[in-house]
C-alpha cells in the first residue's frame, strides 16, 4: 500500500518538478549523472588463487600484517567534525571516523544545493519550500520521505515561531537527522550465540563479498574468532574471491565446489564453527537477479536449513545494496523483504556516488536498521552507521 502511495507521490512530484524546471531552470546544470559502476569481480584477484575442488577449511598461515602489505594503505583524512561515538560502538572497537570527504558527492546534492537555495531566498514562502522539495527529490530522498520531512519542518517552524531562513535550514537538517536516526541501530554481536551467524544477501555486484571481508576484519580486530562460509556457489569466481579475502585477512573460509548446494555449505560451516569455538560465522550467498523468484526460495531454504543446526539462526540477515543505484536499491530491499528475512542493511559505495540520499528513502519506506555503510574498496572502509555524522557530512 505504502509502495503504491510512494509511486503515486513520486509521479505527482516529478511532474511538478519538471514543470518548474522547464519554466525556471533552463540555465541550471543537469544533475551529475554517474556512469554505471564497475560491478564485476576484479579478475586479478580471482586469478591469483588456485581453485580448490574439494570441501576444505582454509586456514592460511600468513601473518595478519600481510593484509596491510597487500592492500593500499588508507589515506588519513583531516578531522573536521567532532564525532561522538555511542558506547556500544566503542565496545565494538570502532574509532571515530571522518566522513566528509567520503560523502563529498552526496554533499553536492544536499549541503551545496541548500547553500545555493538559501543564499538566494531570504524569506520563507511557498517558493522556498518548492525549491527544497525539488532538491530532496533530486537527491534520491524519495517522494514519501520528502513530504514527511518538509511537513515536519513546517510544523517545527510553527511550534518555535521562527520565521528566518536560517531556522528553515536548521529545521531541515534536524528533520533529516531524525529520519536517519530511525535506522541507526548498531549490530551488536550476541556472545551467547556460538557462533553468531550473519547471512549476507543481495544482488550481484552490490558488494556482498567485499562487505563480508570488511566485517570479518572488524570482528577479528575486536578479538573474535571469525569464519567465513562461501555460500555463493553459483559462480566459481565468487568462491575464489572469498578465499582470497580469507587469505588476506588470515581468516578460515569454508568452501565447496561451484554448484554445490549453498544451504549445505552453510550448514556444514555452522557445524565446523561450533566444533572450533568460532564466535562469528559470516555466510556469503548468490545474488542472481532479484527478479528471479527462485533466489528468494533459495534464501528461505538456507535459513530453514540453518535452523536445523541452531533454532535461533541466522542471528542477522544483512542485505547489501549499492548506494549508487538509487531507486533500484529500494526495489531490491522491497523484493528481498517480501520473504521477511531481513534484519539489517549495509549501503555500499557511498564514496563514489551523489545518491546517498537513498538512505532517507529507505528509512521512511522500510525502517530496517542500517548497520553499516561502505565507503571504499579496502577492508577497512566499513563504518557503523551513525545518523548525526552522516547528516553532518552531507550537510556541512
Ligand atoms: N568504491 C567502492 N567500491 C566497493 C565498495 N564495496 C564494494 N565495492 C566494489 O564493488 C565491486 C563488487 O563487489 P563484490 O563484493 O564482488 O560484490 P558481490 O557480487 O555483491 O559479492 C568490487 O569491485 C568491489 O571492490 C565500496 O564501499 N566502495
Ligand atoms: Mg560476491
UniProtKB/TrEMBL annotation:
Keyword field contains GTP-binding: yes
UniProt-annotated location(s): Cell membrane; Cytoplasm
Protein name: Signal recognition particle receptor FtsY
Assigned EC number: 3.6.5.4
Residues annotated to bind GTP: 202-209, 284-288, 348-351
Source species of the chain: Marinicella litoralis
Keywords carried by this UniProt record: Cell membrane, Cytoplasm, GTP-binding, Hydrolase, Membrane, Nucleotide-binding, Receptor
Top-level taxon in the UniProt lineage: Bacteria
Amino acid at each position: 500500500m505504502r509502495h503504491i502511495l510512494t509511486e503515486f507521490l513520486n509521479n505527482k512530484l516529478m511532474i511538478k518538478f519538471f514543470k518548474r524546471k522547464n519554466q525556471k531552470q533552463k540555465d541550471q546544470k543537469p544533475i551529475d549523472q554517474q556512469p554505471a559502476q564497475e560491478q564485476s569481480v576484479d579478475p586479478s584477484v580471482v586469478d591469483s588463487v588456485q581453485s580448490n575442488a574439494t570441501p576444505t577449511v582454509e586456514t592460511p598461515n600468513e601473518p595478519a600484517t600481510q593484509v596491510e602489505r597487500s592492500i593500499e594503505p588508507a589515506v588519513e583524512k583531516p578531522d573536521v567534525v567532532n564525532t561522538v561515538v555511542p558506547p556500544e560502538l566503542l565496545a565494538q572497537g570502532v574509532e571515530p571516523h571522518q566522513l566528509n570527504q567520503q560523502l563529498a558527492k552526496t554533499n553536492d546534492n544536499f549541503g551545496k544545493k541548500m547553500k545555493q537555495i538559501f543564499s538566494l531566498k531570504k524569506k520563507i514562502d511557498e517558493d522556498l519550500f518548492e525549491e527544497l522539495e525539488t532538491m530532496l527529490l533530486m537527491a534520491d530522498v524519495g517522494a514519501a520521505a520528502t513530504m514527511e520531512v518538509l511537513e515536519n519542518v513546517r510544523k517545527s517552524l510553527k511550534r518555535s515561531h521562527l520565521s528566518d531562513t536560517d531556522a528553515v535550514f536548521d529545521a531541515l537538517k534536524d528533520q533529516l537527522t531524525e529520519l536517519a536516526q530511525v535506522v541507526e541501530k548498531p549490530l551488536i554481536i550476541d556472545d551467547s550465540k556460538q557462533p553468531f551467524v550473519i547471512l549476507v544477501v543481495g544482488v550481484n555486484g552490490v558488494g556482498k563479498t567485499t562487505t563480508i571481508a570488511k566485517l570479518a576484519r572488524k570482528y577479528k580486530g575486536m578479538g573474535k574468532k571469525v569464519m567465513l562460509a562461501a555460500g555463493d556457489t553459483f559462480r566459481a569466481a565468487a568462491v575464489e574471491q572469498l578465499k582470497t579475502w580469507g587469505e588476506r585477512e588470515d581468516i578460515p573460509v569454508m568452501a565447496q565446489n561451484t554448484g554445490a548446494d549453498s544451504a549445505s555449505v552453510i550448514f556444514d560451516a555452522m557445524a565446523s564453527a561450533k566444533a572450533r569455538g568460532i564466535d562469528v560465522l559470516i555466510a556469503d550467498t548468490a545474488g542472481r537477479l532479484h527478479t528471479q523468484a527462485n533466489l528468494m526460495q533459495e534464501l528461505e531454504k538456507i535459513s530453514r536449513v540453518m535452523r536445523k543446526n541452531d533454532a535461533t539462526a541466522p542471528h542477522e540477515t544483512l542485505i547489501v545494496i549499492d548506494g549508487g543505484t538509487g531507486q533500484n536499491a529500494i526495489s531490491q530491499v522491497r523484493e528481498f523483504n517480501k520473504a521477511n528475512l531481513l534484519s539489517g542493511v549495509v549501503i555500499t559505495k557511498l564514496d563514489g556516488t551523489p545518491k546517498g540520499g537513498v538512505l532517507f528513502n529507505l528509512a521512511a519506506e522500510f525502517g530496517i536498521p542500517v548497520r553499516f555503510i561502505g565507503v571504499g574498496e579496502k577492508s577497512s572502509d566499513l563504518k557503523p552507521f551513525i545518523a548525526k555524522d552522516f547528516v553532518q557530512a552531507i550537510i556541512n
